[in-house]
Specification:
By secondary structure, the protein is of the alpha+beta class. Helices cover about 45% and strands about 10% of the residues.
């Protein structure tokens, strides 16, 4: 679509940018970018350079979600401390412009990789090994960023982070789960509260770090960008690692964990989760017990239960259909949520095989 004066949204964006000394290049063929499960992304040209305009969708949003103000704050300050993060360029908090706040950030070239490899990569030997290595090697430097040095110490409070995750996800779950499901979630909440790890590291956390939030050069496999920073905060990096592991997938996964896989785990050389854990801990110079890993794993599953239940409500409201990879052997997201809750309540005291540390 062309950004002509007849396009109300883009004319409003152009007028706003003009008022702050920027220019929307109206001859550029603006297009909506694929990817992202909530925020809307548009490729634009501003001041003669490609950029990305990101805005929330219309309608009610889950509390704390789609926070483009937070995203802009992070991207405008990370700078050289974490090169994969695109630079934040513009933020507009005036809802009268297009009806919602929006931010504009630097455009980065690259492909996003989801559940299956693109054809260009599928036959490359040891591509799974290369992508696994790339993921962990991109995560650890983020967790080593000095938040004081980049002016992001005020982004969140590490003190009580895990307690807030436990309480917050339960509160969100009450809005989207049935009463029997809420009772099971409350049982898991109480177990998590009673098994908090004594040692809790703190760092900047992205909160949705996985391959489809990365822009990768398909020839060199270099990470050109990491995107979707609207949930970034100061928190526990081991919780972020556990969230990544929940997306990871593996050849011996049960249908319950296969349904949560968001990455190409059948790729040649794809790492088992134990190898991910070992590599990450080595890079971070951290040590962790299997019992603490167990806590983080179940906390990530507890979060995922609520995320899937929120998605289920969204699909019911909009009439969208979940992707086949979300359900695999389940008839509905609600069935998946129910099985996840049963898995937690039945096995929460056991260290999952996929987390057992390699000697």
């Amino acid at each position: 679509m062309k950004a002509s004066p007849k396009s109300n949204m883009w004319q409003a964006v152009d007028d706003y940018l003009d008022s702050i000394g920027h220019r929307l290049d109206k001859d550029f063929d603006i297009r909506k970018l694929s990817g992202g499960s909530a925020n809307l992304n548009y490729l634009i040209s501003m001041d003669g350079q490609k950029a990305v305009l990101r805005r929330p969708p219309d309608g009610p949003l889950p509390p704390g979600a789609n926070d483009v103000a937070r995203e802009y704050k992070v991207l405008s300050r990370l700078g050289d401390a974490y090169p994969p993060a695109p630079s934040g360029l513009v933020f507009c908090d005036d809802d009268s412009v297009i009806g919602v706040p929006f931010c504009i950030s630097q455009f980065r070239e690259g492909i996003c990789i989801g559940r299956h490899l693109p054809e260009a990569l599928a036959r490359r030997p040891q591509i799974g090994h290369a992508l696994s290595d790339l993921l962990v090697d991109a995560l650890a430097p983020l967790h080593r960023v000095d938040v004081d040095a980049v002016g992001l110490a005020g982004l969140g409070n590490a003190e009580g982070f895990l307690e807030r995750q436990i309480a917050g996800w339960y509160k969100r779950g009450q809005r989207v789960l049935s009463e029997p499901q809420q009772q099971l979630l409350a049982w898991v909440r109480d177990w998590l509260s009673a098994h908090l790890p004594e040692r809790r590291p703190a760092s900047l956390v992205h909160n949705d770090f996985k391959l489809d939030n990365m822009l990768i050069d398909p020839l060199t496999l270099r990470v050109n960008g990491v995107v979707d920073w609207d949930m970034c905060t100061i928190g526990d990096p081991l919780f972020e690692l556990a969230i990544l592991l929940s997306y990871w997938g593996g050849e011996n996964d049960t249908p319950l964990y296969s349904a949560q896989c968001r990455m190409p785990c059948e790729a040649d050389g794809w790492w088992p989760r134990q190898q991910v854990i070992k590599r990450y801990l080595d890079l971070m110079e951290l040590s962790v017990t299997e019992q603490d890993l167990c806590f983080y794993w179940w906390l990530a599953q507890y979060r995922s239960v609520v995320v899937y239940a929120q998605l289920n409500i969204q699909f019911q409201r909009t009439g969208e259909r979940p992707s086949a990879s979300t359900l695999t052997e389940f008839d509905s997201i609600d069935e998946l949520v129910g099985q996840m809750l049963l898995e937690m309540t039945e096995n929460i005291d056991r260290v999952p095989d996929q987390l057992k540390l390699v000697a």
